[in-house]
Amino acid sequence: MRCDFQPVELTSKGETNRIRASTSRASETSEKRDVRVEILSVRTSTSRTDATPEERNTRRETELLWQSRLRTKIALKKVAFNYNKDYDYKTHRDVVTGPLANLSFHCPALKFQKETPSLCCYNGNVNLPPLTETPEPFLIYIAGATGESKHFLDTNLEIKLELSKDIVCSD
């Protein structure tokens, strides 16, 4: 069976800028980083000093909204370890599902459309050797001989089916 992935291009200007900044920061020296942080610090303090009361209120409201969003994201922390098949994860605003169609810039890993660029290989700094044989703990889980391994197989089958809806496969 052969799977054909349709690459999804990053068209968002913000996404492009985020990737460019991430790549630039990964290669900058500590001295350059210190200078950049100092410039941003001076710029921020000047901006806050010159701000009108209305601008300060707007900034505070924006910060409160941002903090509220961060608190919502915390609810998803480690949720994969307690997968609930009755909960529709696609409806959560921070869950982005779709095909694994984007190639990493640094390695041949396939990624989701909005996945963090450095998640797979830390911007090319981590190179893992290819696996020569299946690790023993994984063989135990895929054997289906114990109750725990049966649960593992059932849960992973459900997740795999859900994620594979966007992958086009042909014989």
UniProtKB/TrEMBL annotation:
Residues 14-33 are annotated as: Disordered. This is Uncharacterized protein.
